[in-house]
Amino acid sequence: MDSLSYKTISANAATVDKQWVVIDATDEVLGRLASQVAKILRGKNKPSYTPHVDCGDYVIVINADKVKLTGKKMTDKVYTRHTGFPGGQRFATPADYLAKKPTFLIEKAVKGMLPKTRLGEAIMKNLKVYAGAEHPHAAQNPKAIKLNEIK
């Protein structure tokens, strides 16, 4: 046999097939939801997955304000940030963020599961998170999927 009967296909920006999907975050556990969303954004659920290419789908997450955390994490977990000034350390709980900016929890959880590179930043732009059930992407005809149906 001189040649292979199959070829390894490597996707590139021109050959990638990107779809739009909607995920409802109502009563979903934050970490489990974020890991599935990160998998879809990265394209790891597709047979044409290529590590160095943005080959994932666009993901719309609705009802982000209804996500839940297990145990006492809603009040005991602490997000820390720093303003850059002396004494500028600030602390907030998930309950605080749900009251002020409900999309923050999902965005931060998913961002932590993506590569910390330019590719990760590009992939993060494919994530759209909304606090309510309405979203402005009806023209893209997104497909609603359930988290337990993702392979």
UniProtKB/TrEMBL annotation:
Keywords: Ribonucleoprotein, Ribosomal protein. SUPFAM superfamilies: Ribosomal protein L13. PROSITE patterns: RIBOSOMAL_L13. CDD domains: Ribosomal_L13 (cd00392). One of its GO terms (cellular component) is cytosolic large ribosomal subunit. The keyword Zinc-finger does not apply. GO terms for biological process: negative regulation of translation; translation. GO terms for molecular function: mRNA binding; structural constituent of ribosome. It comes from the Bacteria. The keyword Ribonucleoprotein applies. Part of the 50S ribosomal subunit. This protein is one of the early assembly proteins of the 50S ribosomal subunit, although it is not seen to bind rRNA by itself. It is important during the early stages of 50S assembly. Belongs to the universal ribosomal protein uL13 family. This is Large ribosomal subunit protein uL13. It comes from Alistipes putredinis DSM 17216.
